[in-house]
Specification:
Blueprint: H1 8-18, E1 24-25, H2 26-33, H3 37-49, E2 53-58, E3 72-77, H4 91-105, H5 108-129, H6 135-145, E4 150-153, E5 156-159, H7 165-170, H8 172-189, E6 195-199, E7 208-212
Antiparallel strand pairs: 1-3, 2-3, 4-5, 5-7, 6-7
């Protein structure tokens, strides 16, 4: 698993595929990273063999029946999660136990305070590192570093990935509240006033969305 992403071209392809809402073809992926289609096909299939991307087949739009052409392979980020630790350590098991304790004891307020504090620290760090960055770019960059994969959705920002997906599927209110507090803290720490974090769940995405409350400069983040 570790060796699969050692190749820089393969890593760029994976990052591109993982950042898309829908499956992408070999040609689309090749163009995105600036390589030939045959080379993209080779690396994408290696990623599929390693279980890092899922593959589906789709015929060209508007063409059916005999002679319609072979279905195109489409690649998208795998739904399964992968964790590598040498020697093996069960951090996920520990996280699940801690989440269960918080849920059973009703310690959600304490969890949210801690999440807000951590988010604020991330926001302050991002502001120190890029004091002149537009608010939209600064926030999306900080969220990207935390694994949320932000993207523009009209005027607002959505988060394509939940870094705590396994826990969120078992304890939705608990983890969604934690996510919201963390993002709110990040906005506060970065002194951003034009964005407001809200809960607005979508399937296979983070439950938090960022609503634009003031006009922001254009962001470099990919649009949906």
């Amino acid at each position: 698993m570790i060796a699969v992403l050692d190749d820089p071209v393969r890593r760029r392809l994976y990052d591109y595929v993982a950042g898309q809402a829908d499956g992408v073809s070999r040609a689309e992926a090749a163009e995105a990273v600036g390589i030939q289609r045959t080379l993209a096909a080779f690396h994408l299939d290696r990623l599929a063999e390693a279980g890092l991307v899922d593959v589906s087949l789709r015929r060209p739009a508007g063409r059916t029946g005999p002679g319609a052409g072979r279905p195109a392979k489409l690649y998208r980020r795998a739904a399964a999660e992968h964790q590598v630790s040498v020697p093996p350590r069960d951090y996920r098991g520990a996280a699940e136990l801690l989440a269960e304790v918080v849920d059973v004891t009703g310690a959600e307020p304490e969890l949210q305070r801690s999440a807000r504090s951590r988010g604020a620290a991330c926001g302050r760090l991002a502001r120190r590192q890029a004091p002149q960055a537009p608010d939209g770019d600064l926030v999306t960059g900080a969220l990207e570093a935390q694994g949320y994969q932000p993207y523009r959705d009209g005027a607002d920002f959505r988060l394509r990935n939940c870094p705590f997906h396994v826990l969120a599927s078992r304890y939705p209110p608990l983890i969604c509240g934690m996510n919201l507090a963390l993002v709110e803290g990040l906005l506060e720490g970065a002194a951003v006033t034009g964005l407001e974090a809200r809960l607005d769940p979508r399937p296979e995405e983070c439950c938090v969305t960022l609503r634009v409350s003031e006009e922001l400069p254009s962001s470099k983040t990919n649009e949906s």
